[in-house]
Known about the structure:
Blueprint: H1 12-15, E1 22-26, E2 35-39, E3 45-48, E4 56-60, E5 66-70, E6 76-79, E7 86-89, E8 100-105, E9 119-124, E10 129-134, E11 144-147, E12 152-153, E13 161-162, E14 168-171, E15 174-178, E16 184-189, E17 200-205, E18 210-212, E19 218-220, E20 223-229, E21 232-243, E22 246-258, E23 263-267, E24 273-277, E25 283-287, E26 297-300, E27 311-315, E28 320-324, E29 338-340
Parallel strand pairs: 24-26
Antiparallel strand pairs: 1-2, 1-29, 2-3, 4-5, 5-6, 6-7, 8-9, 9-10, 10-11, 12-13, 14-15, 15-16, 16-17, 18-19, 20-21, 21-22, 22-23, 24-25, 26-27, 27-28
Amino acid sequence: xxxxxxxxxxxxxxxxxxxxxxxxxxxxxxxxxxxxxxxxxxxxxxxxxxxxxxxxxxxxxxxxxxxxxxxxxxxxxxxxxxxxxxxxxxxxxxxxxxxxxxxxxxxxxxxxxxxxxxxxxxxxxxxxxxxxxxxxxxxxxxxxxxxxxxxxxxxxxxxxxxxxxxxxxxxxxxxxxxxxxxxxxxxxxxxxxxxxxxxxxxxxxxxxxxxxxxxxxxxxxxxxxxxxxxxxxxxxxxxxxxxxxxxxxxxxxxxxxxxxxxxxxxxxxxxxxxxxxxxxxxxxxxxxxxxxxxxxxxxxxxxxxxxxxxxxxxxxxxxxxxxxxxxxxxxxxxxxxxxxxxxxxxxxxxx
Length: 351
């Protein structure tokens, strides 16, 4: 296990390109505003002081780019951690909430290539609100705010709140998400020739996977993740059971959406790839062999493991689970560990 003193170098992550994907442990402002990064391929640890994470809000995306927002001016940029390249985007009119995720998706064609009509979408997990802008136009463009209605969330004894999207994936220019209505998928479409970005909604029924146990009990998925893989929509599910008032993992599985039949098909072969899952529904696909990873595995770094900084590895083919993590103590974190994944080679950030 290797560990270095902090390196203050904007291109330092580019030097670690061969070690991607990286699990990032961000220590925030104290004591030295540094980040520890773990390569899940070789187990190496390095510590950096990344300028992009000082005084900036960072929203990582499954597409490998990171939306960075200046804390003072709210000026935005898309950052490629592999190259250090930045694409200017317009400033926001108000700071996004703490509970946000970001996606980048092509809207100009059916091919998932990155062109100036790509949409940057920020969706709030705490309220029904979308923020979007096109890469075309750079910093002179504008963010467009769009609201939607998923109904109300009512819990006895607590204030009524509006439901919001929690799981979303961008697949060939379409943003898919899980509706609040059971077994319903929402799809948001955008059109490149519109004068400003806007999303039109359609929904369709697709029964979510369930686990039929031998004792006759049927379990619904406790945790779900939506993601794009090989131009298809995938779902990863974790099924838990209650044992002595605590949750224990019963089963896990990966499913591909058959858009013709409108149904989830269970798969144990995802080709030469791995899935990377993180907090607040983050889910990405990454080439396996190219990055020194065992194909067909799912790396799950999320809240289920508490503050241990460990992650789970699920092998879809063998049906096994193991726990791995850094072999040394990690300083106190300012946020949950998050993934930096390789950027697709066809990404074009030119405006």
